[in-house]
Design a protein that fits this description.
The chain is of the alpha/beta class. The protein is built from 9 helices and 5 strands, in the order H-E-H-E-H-E-H-E-H-H-H-E-H-H. A 5-stranded parallel beta sheet has the order 1-2-3-4-5. Strand 1, helix 2 and strand 2 form a beta-alpha-beta unit. The longest helix is centred in the last third of the chain and has 17 residues. The radius of gyration is 19 Å and the shape is globular. GO terms for molecular function: oxidoreductase activity; potassium channel regulator activity; transmembrane transporter binding. One of its GO terms (cellular component) is voltage-gated potassium channel complex. It comes from Trichonephila inaurata madagascariensis.
């Protein structure tokens, strides 16, 4: 379920969540889904209402589990606490952005929380919205996320100075050289790197064709090649390993 902060007609009320689930099931022509994700929190809607709505959907056989997406560690903990106090069903997973240039949340903020409450991490955008593939250098591809009007902000994000600064361009060139040395593409290397992370249970992929998907799945063959030496080489190239603030230790 998506909550867009710019949409005045959408929120995460119980009514909206349950109606959206029913509409999704009708479009999918399915009786239930494995998991329902709640994308972001709604400041106008109590988290307890979200937890109750998701519990209702699960109890009525419309979903097996529910999870959060782009929630903060504090928000996830609040949902878990509400669920335990009210005898409801807590979230099972957090879906969040994770790639070589976006690491702090997955590697620093979530692990300690998840070890306490037992939820998993499902990550998306291993290629950093195409930045790590060079896709946006040649314009938006047909049917890519950046070509969708509702997601045009992704294109703007890739066109910012931060996404094209010389240091990151140099890092991408060095990563491409490393991928060549390993006998794989930069796409396969970035996916394998994400899967290698101890904090990640699943990586979501986006493919434009079946062949594209098969090519991405070859990343599974690259994971054994990410030895300690190779991992250290990647860290040296990236030079952005997040560290916990002394007050958080």
């Amino acid at each position: 379920m998506f909550y867009f902060r710019l949409d005045s007609d959408r929120g995460l009320s119980r009514k909206f969540i349950l109606e959206a689930i029913d509409a999704s099931l009708q479009r999918l022509q399915m009786e239930y889904v494995d998991i329902v994700y709640i994308n972001r929190t709604d400041p106008m809607c109590p988290i307890e209402e979200v937890v109750r709505a998701c519990t209702h959907a699960i109890n009525h056989g419309k979903a097996m589990y529910w999870g959060t997406s782009r929630w903060t560690a504090m928000e996830i903990m609040e949902a878990y606490t509400v669920a335990r106090q009210c005898h409801l069903i807590p979230p099972s997973a957090e879906q969040t952005e994770y790639h070589m240039f976006q690491r702090e949340k997955v590697e620093i903020h979530l692990p300690e929380l998840f070890h306490k409450i037992g939820t998993g991490t499902i990550t998306w955008s291993p290629q950093a919205f195409g930045l790590l593939t060079g896709k946006f250098d040649e314009g938006v591809q047909l049917l890519s996320r950046g070509s969708l009007k509702s997601l045009s902000a992704l294109q703007d994000r890739m066109n910012t100075d931060d996404s094209r600064n010389p240091k990151d361009q140099m890092k991408m060139r060095e990563l491409n050289h490393l991928a060549d040395k390993l006998g794989c593409s930069i796409t396969q290397l970035t996916i394998a790197w994400c899967l290698k992370s101890e904090q990640v249970q699943c990586v979501l992929l986006g493919a434009l064709s079946v062949d594209h998907l098969y090519d991405q799945l070859q990343a599974l063959q690259i994971i054994p090649k990410l030895t300690t030496n190779i991992s250290n080489e990647i860290e040296k190239i990236l030079d952005n390993k997040p560290t916990r603030h002394p007050l958080q230790r």
